[in-house]
Every structure is written in C-alpha cells, then in structure tokens.
Amino acid sequence: MDPRRHRTRLRLEAALRTLLAEKPLAEISVEELSRRAGTTRQTFYGHFVGLPDMLEAYLDALLAEIERRNAEIRCAPADEADLQELHRRKFERVFRDLPRDDPRLRALLDGVPGLAPEDRFAELVEKLIGATPENPYSSDPLMRRIAARFYTGAFVSVVRHWIGSADPLPPEAMARAFTTLIFRGWPDMAGAHERTTA
C-alpha cells in the first residue's frame, strides 16, 4: 500500500477508536469521523464503503491473527493432561493479546449491522477442528459444526463478560477457567444427579 494512503487509513482507524470510546457506532457519521481524522468524506470512501466496513476489516485482522497463532501449534500431544495444558497456554495468549480496551472490539461484540462476527468465528473454529485429526469431531461434519457453534458461543460470551467487567480476572485466570470448562464441563454430573434423586 502507498505510504500516504496507509497513513490516511491509520488516521481513519484512530478516529474510529476515539469516537467509539465516546458514543455507539449508530451515532457516528462518516462526516464526523472524516473530520476527526483530518480528512474528507471523499477520502474516507476511497478507503472504506462505510463504517461497518471498517469494523469488518478489524474483524478480518483479528480472525487472521487467531488462525496464524493456531497454526503455530501443529501437532497436539496424545496425553489429555498435556493437551489441556497446551490449550490453557493458547487461551492465555489469546486473553492476554485481546485488545480489551479497544472500543472496536466492544462494538463488534455489541453487534454491527451487516456483520456476523460470531458466525465468522464459528466458521474459523469449524475449520480448525477439521484440520485437527486428534479432535474426535474432526471427521464428522455435523458434530464439527455443532461443536464449533458450542465453543464459539461460550468463548464470545466469556469475552463479552470479561471486557465489560469493571474488575476483570487476569488473562491466566480466564484461560485456566475456560480450559477447565472445555475439558471437564460440569463437574461430577453423574454424582450430582445421584445426590439429587436419592
């Protein structure tokens, strides 16, 4: 990309972050954003179709980074304890690197007209499950799709809660809790059922 064009794009992105910290996306106009970035509407439209397009570019970058990081871990250990630890470390990196204070992430999770971040994330998770032969759902298309939705829904809900919390847990605690729930689910369900029916 031309350096001048790149600088303009960075100014537009910075202006969007600033404005989203002040008000919801629905209250921001292209004219206001362009003015805040020190440019014109015409220049804005030379870079983006509209404000949702800016957030879609941000979502694309987030998903590409998640996919890139996942590719760094090529083979999973056979031992379940080691596999759980591998996932705990992976999720700790995700929670540590998530831009908690970036208002664009909050806007994405609050919903953007024409964008479906949860659907896009689920598609990525389904692809990652399919590319992991060790995963018991990798060869079953139906279970792969359901598992992707299940894990995505849980993760997005947890992230939404975490970034909105006034007193958030540290990334390592979030990763430990999330990974424990993935691998262990509800503790001792059979025992709990026996106790309540006795």
UniProtKB/TrEMBL annotation:
PROSITE patterns per record: HTH_TETR_2
GO molecular function, one term: DNA binding
DNA-binding region(s) in UniProt: 29-48
Cited SUPFAM superfamilies: Homeodomain-like
Lineage: superkingdom: Bacteria
Keywords per UniProt: DNA-binding
HTH tetR-type domain mapped to chain residues: 6-66
Gene3D superfamilies: Tetracycline Repressor, domain 2 (1.10.357.10)
Coiled coil: none
Keyword NAD found: no
Protein name: Regulatory protein, tetR family
Organism: Roseivivax halotolerans
